[in-house]
Structure formats: structure tokens, C-alpha cells
Amino acid sequence: KAGVTQTPRYLIKTRGQQVTLSCSPISGHRSVSWYQQTPGQGLQFLFEYFSETQRNKGNFPGRFSGRQFSNSRSEMNVSTLELGDSALYLCASSLRDVASGANVLTFGAGSRLTVL
Amino acid sequence: GQQLNQSPQSMFIQEGEDVSMNCTSSSIFNTWLWYKQDPGEGPVLLIALYKAGELTSNGRLTAQFGITRKDSFLNISASIPSDVGIYFCAGQNYGGSQGNLIFGKGTKLSVKP
User: Fold this and answer.
1) Could you give the CA distance from residue A111 to residue A35 in angstroms, rounded to a whole number?
2) Which of B41, B100, B105 is the closest to A56 by Cβ?
3) What is the pLDDT along chain B (113 residues), one digit of tens a residue?
4) What are the residues of chain B with a beta carbon less than 8 Å away from any beta carbon of chain A?
């Protein structure tokens, strides 16, 4: 069974640009969560999507957005990039909505974004 | 918001030694999880704990869910070079619209052969 696939794995952008990252969950998983990982802040929750609806959102500015498609694939977008947005962006999928109970999240390898 | 204090931040040990790391929180969690992250990869789940007081093993790894639901520890016995990596604890509460993981800052483990 294929794992969580994230593309692209690496990308470099400049300040002010925008970026879109993609996540394909494990087949049959309907929940996709996004996390930002930086050396200073560690792993921080961005948002979770289940059945194409955003179910939960972390404390990030509105420049960070996402969506989920009918096949459960998800994208996240960051507009007007800032230097501090440089990070590893991790996607995790699970079978059920994470709020519904104990639920194992499986992470992808991440997309490493560098903002110059 | 909820925060987890994970210690130690880093450990340098000799192959064959046992390792212990822990996480504490000021508030309770329904679930505690332990992940390991290798360079260039995402976190991989090692052990999930669902009940206060629960003690669970996975090979050389043993983890416990504290009785107060505010802490957890992970032990690795007889460490080997492939144990090198960053270990994260994570707490989870679910219900309502919540359910996201709250992560500790990680324990970086180095093993000298």
C-alpha cells in the first residue's frame, strides 16, 4: 500500500511569491492534516481537512490556506511568502476525522520550502 | 495553548546502552504518541498509548502513559546505530473539532558504535 506522497520534495522561492504544495494520502484515508516544522518552533499544526471540509485550523495567518479534493488529495497554499516561511511542510493522513477518536496519523516525507 | 516539555534535548550514548526520554504537559491528553524522524523523512509512529497507566512495548522500545495523563516516557534498550534520529512525543485530545497533535520539541539521539 503506497504511503503518503508529497510533492514537490524541495523548492526554492523568493519573498512575495506564492507556493502550492500537494499531498496524496494513503488510499482510503479521508483525513489530511498539515504541519509546519522549523528548528525553532518544532512541529506546528496548520489545518485538517476531512471530506473536502476544513475541520480544524492552527494559529497561522490567513496567507496559509488549503483545500481537499473529492479524491481526498489535498493542497496547501502560502501566499506572499516571507523568509520565516522557510520550513519543512508535512502532510499526514488518517482513516477518520482526527476529532472522532484515537486515530493514527501517517506522515509523508515532507516538502522542504526555502524562501530567499 | 497546550505545550509539551520534552527532555533531554539531545543524548550522546554508546551502542548497547539504554536510553530514556520523557514528556510532560501542564494539561491532560487522551492519547500519547511517540514518533521517530530520520533525516529527510517525515515522523514515523513508534508507539501509541490510549489509557492512563498503559505500558506498551514495541521490540526494544517501551513507552508508558502517565497515570495523571500529563506525562509519558519512552525507553530504548540496548541501543544500536540505527536508533539515531530525532524522537518526538505528541499528545492528542479529540472531540468537538479538535484532534490535532501537539508535539514536543524532540530528543536528538546519537549512538556511537
Assistant:
1) 11
2) B100
3) 567 999 999 999 999 999 999 999 998 998 999 999 998 899 999 999 989 999 999 999 999 999 999 999 999 999 999 999 999 999 988 766 567 889 999 999 999 98
4) 1, 30-31, 35, 40-45, 48, 50, 88, 90, 92, 94-106
